[in-house]
Amino acid sequence: MYRTVFDVRGTGTFPLDMLRYDSCVPHTQDDVCQMSLTRARVLTLHSYHKYKKTSVPTSARWHSFGWEVVRVDAPDSVA
């Protein structure tokens, strides 16, 4: 199993469907709180996936919601 940690930046309503689409969750409780705000903000998310080369996050889809992927860490192996 692998985990990819990434940051997204945006304003307005957070696109909750992207959590399902990219199989990701907020990284910390602070990121959960940031989801309900409407001002500009950066959230850290992480996704667990079976294969190291899984295409997470889907930057173009985030962009279609007005959000930008601003950082993606290399996938790391988790037990």
**Amount of beta strand:** 35-45%
End-to-end distance, in Å? 7 Å
- What overall geometry do the principal axes of the alpha carbons give? globular
Written as H for each helix and E for each strand, in order along the chain, the element string is: EHEHEHEE
Helix count, DSSP H or I runs of 4 or more residues: 3
Supply database-style keywords.
79 residues; 5-stranded antiparallel β-sheet; 5 strands
Task: Please write out the topology.
Layout: E1 2-10, H1 17-21, E2 24-26, H2 29-35, E3 41-49, H3 59-64, E4 68-72, E5 76-77
Antiparallel strand pairs: 1-3, 1-4, 1-5, 2-3
Structure commentary:
The protein is α+β, with helices and mostly antiparallel strands. It has one domain. Helix content is 23%, strand content 35%. The chain has three helices and five strands; from the N terminus they run βαβαβαββ. Strands 1, 2, 3, 4 and 5 form a five-stranded antiparallel beta sheet that branches. The longest helix has 7 residues, at 29-35. The protein is globular, with a radius of gyration of 12 Å. The mean pLDDT is 94.
Condensed summary:
This protein has 79 residues and is an alpha+beta fold. It has three helices and five strands; from the N terminus they run βαβαβαββ.
